[in-house]
Amino acid sequence: MKIRPVAWTRDGVRILDQTQLPQRETYIHCTRVSQVVRAIERLQVRGAPLIGITAAYAMALARPTPTALKKAAQSLIEARPTAINLSWAVKRVLEKTLNGGSALQEARAIHKEDAAMCEAIGRHGAALKAKRILTICNSGALATGGIGTAFGVVLRSKAELFACETRPLSQGARLTMWEAKKWKRKAQLTVDGAAATTMKNQNIDLVITGADRIARNGDTANKIGTLGLALMAKEFKIPFYIAAPSTTFDPSCKTGKEIPIEERDPTEISPHFPAYNPAFDITPAKLITGFVTEKGIFPAGKVALDAQRLPK
Fold this sequence. Notes:
Elements: E1 6-8, E2 13-16, E3 27-30, H1 33-41, H2 48-59, H3 66-77, H4 84-98, H5 103-126, E4 132-135, H6 150-157, E5 160-164, H7 171-182, E6 187-190, H8 195-201, E7 206-209, E8 213-214, E9 220-223, H9 226-235, E10 240-243, E11 280-283, E12 290-293, E13 296-299, H10 300-305
Parallel strand pairs: 4-5, 4-7, 5-6, 7-10, 10-12
Antiparallel strand pairs: 1-2, 2-3, 8-9, 9-11, 12-13
Helix pairs in contact: 1-2, 2-4, 2-5, 3-4, 4-5, 5-6
């Protein structure tokens, strides 16, 4: 089974419009950088690794002059500020092209590398031997270049999945459950407010999520609601892991306090009343059991204490 949410065509970037899932599988075709920026801002394409890959391909749409490339890079980086993969991928392609390389070849390399990292993450995560896994948001093929991070662990563990709906945009209900159905994986949906009861009553033996940025001390930014899951997991003595590729680690951020948190349009919550709508929260390292990366499983304390071994 192959899900291809982003692909390079003869003259542009083909994006599966995730805002239309699960009702319709429709695609948008971007031939300009501005169209890709808009798709990222509107969450038509989302997930930290995947928006990095998409932005890398978008750089191939820019005119091959230093000024145009730098302008394209800046607009892409500003599209969503929290996910470090976005700026990392764009800067990598920019450096390559300014030194005479091919933007498209570099984007394809980033895509291929992420798929390989996802496979490794899934393989390492399977060593945790979980049977009933709870997660939030979407961390599968719709968020990465491969089988996914936390979702990849679910697949390679052959575990039963419990997916939080992930309000306000329901990425868990719409996207993770759609992927689980595609993979014929046993899965159940639960409302966000039932997460604690699900942990208590459904014999959850692992809570695992993806990440958008991980600070040097292990503090982690991920979809809003992740912090709550970590606190609940601690109460019920359930291991809480973060699954992420090395590109999600940001050694330039000392702690989670330095990670920018995107706040989205309040009307996503209510068209009638004022609303506070942060897209992400910060889970402190002290609540995280460990990190599943393509290089193996790192205890949270080890990541914080041994900075030179942080994935690069």
